[in-house]
């Protein structure tokens, strides 16, 4: 049977309510928070004092507003409060970063790492080393890590956090949170998510696309993932397995994919496919050739726009989403990929004659996934701040 809420439960709920209001509208006063939440001014004042004592909220002087009357004290999230630690386990690198409550990246690092087809334990040992380095950086800055987010290139079961399958890593059924805790002694919550979904989350929060609330963020790396944002919310799918754009079948006779099927998008429009057609050893070489006007390199990028447009047009026709944001490798190739892709979508999306399709470049580029992982960790702090307030700070 449901139990009545105790005093601590009510305080915990109200604390989250107050912090969420401040996060949504930085600069609110205590009176503004009370009006927004429906709590009494006295309750809000007590909770704000608790949040400020725990470095979750800071006071920034009188509000800036027009009109007569007494100005309240402006409240905002504190950059000195608990940070989110983001980790990205990619095919060819491991990235980490620290993000404060305001969304600012305070520290980041990227280590090249040949993770493809390596045993999960070996790679996670490297990841644990990177996490320990990030924890050391947090300690040097005298900030607490309130949560850890991990971006992985595969299917993550939302209910358990298990990485069920990562074809490009060759992993199956890996309990990433448990493995990282065992190797690092982490006590903070560890969240695991698909890298494309977390990249879309970062794009939503920090991409700066003038309030764009409906889009598909496409992460083009070795694999291809899509994060779908609808009405300002990330769509995960029923079990968390959505967004696997790279495994859309675009050619029934195409090359064999790491997933076991033939003709998947990533085998025709992923980074490896583009490099192979261009005859380039790596992405920096390809970019240099593109900058020099190399025709073969430009043709390789244009060729990728056709299958990519085929797959994305299906998504846009189904969901009626008005824009595509290109991230990862695609963001770096945007000057040569953007227009061919826009032309492909214009010819395939039924609504295009009345609503032109936006094809945008992510300003976050290859940093989006690790930033999104840290952002997800920050969200857990804002959603339940009482967890990070020491007992006895204030009554």
TrEMBL record:
Keyword Oxidoreductase on entry: no
Keyword annotations of the record: Kinase, Transferase
Listed GO MF terms: DNA-binding transcription factor activity; kinase activity
Region annotated Disordered, chain positions: 58-79
Domain HTH marR-type: 15-63
Protein family membership: Belongs to the ROK (NagC/XylR) family.
Protein name per its UniProtKB record: Sugar kinase
Organism: Prauserella flavalba
UniProt lineage: Bacteria, Bacillati, Actinomycetota, Actinomycetes, Pseudonocardiales
């Amino acid at each position: 049977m449901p139990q009545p809420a105790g005093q601590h439960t009510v305080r915990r709920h109200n604390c989250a309510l107050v912090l969420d209001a401040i996060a949504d509208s930085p600069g609110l006063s205590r009176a503004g928070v009370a009006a927004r939440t429906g709590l009494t001014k006295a309750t809000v004042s007590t909770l704000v004092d608790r949040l400020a004592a725990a470095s979750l909220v800071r006071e920034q002087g009188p509000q800036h507003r027009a009109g007569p009357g007494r100005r309240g004290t402006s409240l905002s999230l504190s950059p000195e409060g608990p940070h989110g630690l983001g980790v990205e386990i990619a095919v060819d690198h491991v990235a980490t970063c620290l993000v404060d409550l305001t969304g600012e990246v305070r520290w980041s690092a990227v280590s090249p790492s040949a993770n493809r087809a390596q045993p999960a334990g070996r790679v996670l040992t490297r990841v644990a080393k990177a996490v320990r380095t990030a924890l050391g950086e947090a300690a040097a800055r005298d900030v607490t890590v309130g949560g850890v987010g991990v971006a992985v290139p595969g299917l993550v079961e939302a209910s358990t956090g298990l990485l069920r399958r990562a074809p490009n890593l060759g992993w199956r059924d890996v309990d990433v949170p448990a493995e990282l805790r065992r190797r690092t002694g982490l006590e903070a919550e560890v969240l695991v998510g698909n890298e494309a979904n977390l990249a879309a989350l970062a794009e939503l929060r920090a991409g700066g696309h003038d309030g764009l609330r409906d889009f598909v963020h496409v992460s083009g790396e070795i694999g291809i993932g899509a994060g779908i944002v609808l009405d300002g919310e990330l769509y995960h799918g029923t079990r968390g397995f959505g967004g696997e754009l790279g495994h859309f079948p675009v050619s029934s006779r195409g090359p064999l994919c790491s997933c076991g099927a033939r003709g998947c998008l990533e085998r025709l429009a992923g980074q490896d496919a583009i490099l192979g057609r261009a005859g380039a050893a790596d992405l920096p070489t390809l970019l240099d050739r593109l900058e020099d006007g190399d025709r073969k390199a430009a043709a390789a990028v244009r060729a990728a726009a056709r299958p990519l447009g085929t797959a994305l047009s299906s998504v846009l026709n189904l969901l009626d989403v008005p824009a595509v944001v290109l991230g990862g490798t695609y963001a770096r190739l945007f000057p040569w990929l953007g227009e061919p892709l826009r032309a492909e979508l214009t010819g395939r999306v039924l609504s295009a004659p009345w609503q032109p399709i936006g094809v945008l470049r992510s300003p976050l580029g290859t940093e989006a996934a690790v930033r999104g992982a840290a952002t997800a960790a920050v969200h857990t702090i804002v959603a339940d701040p009482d967890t990070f307030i020491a007992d006895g700070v204030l009554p």
